[in-house]
Amino acid sequence: MLPKDVQQQLIAQGRDFMKGYRENDPYMEDFQSDQTLRLPQPPLCKAPMRGEAARTALPMHFGELPMGDFLSLIQKRKSRRIYTDEPITLLQLSFLLWASQGIKGRRGKAYATLRTVPSGGARHEYETYIAVRKVEGLAPGIYHYLPELNAVELLRAAEDPAPEIVESLSGQKWAGKASAVFYWAMDAYRAEWRYGIYAHRVALIDAGHIGQNLTLAAEAMGLGSCAVAAIEHEVCCRMLEIDGEKEFAVYAMPAGTVDPEKDAAAEQDIYRFVREQNL
Q1: Does residue 134 lie within any of the structural domains?
Q2: pLDDT, tens digit, 9 for 90 and up, residues 119-139
């Protein structure tokens, strides 16, 4: 067991990391960001990882998607882990990607992108990767989202990505039945260029914006989703072809088709221990 004093030390460090700017910060007075030093700005988006032949343009006629009113959406939204194993459409996948990381405009020539989610300093430091199981019009495999082109590029085909999905999400078998699993990897310097040693707390807040938009977009279309923080670093690095230092996975979200009645019954079974232990 981890010694109690070590646990308390790590808890204190975690609390300090989550706090905002503090009067007793020993670094604030001398800190200068690379932006302040006028060093070159990093690219707003990661360059395509494959050639044009690997790309699939995404449709954007979102008006054809049936969606409910916002109040109803907020009331219905919940984490859904039981999927029907049916495919989602390419248009649905496109909306999930656009709603969570889509680009609506630019600020200046190349200073910042204006997206569907807020981000500290408009850095938008996350890259989106998708493990596709069942999406109409896309072969199963691992994809990278290209927001500036509104397209996805195939990194690697996989006849059945479910085992890799489960391994990457700490053995959570239910995730392997999702139609698609979204992974968000932080391109660290994109945020550090502006915020330096203070970038990482802001980046965690930004991840929350992305995840919330995706889960609401899924609910609006009658799909299910569930946010996952239990991810395996090394597995994700291999799976997404990222180096794990300059770019690393932070957050994931399986999404897929659901049957509300079966979902409710299965959820009761999952949380049977609450009744049994009278919690």
Answers
A1: yes
A2: 999 999 999 999 999 999 999
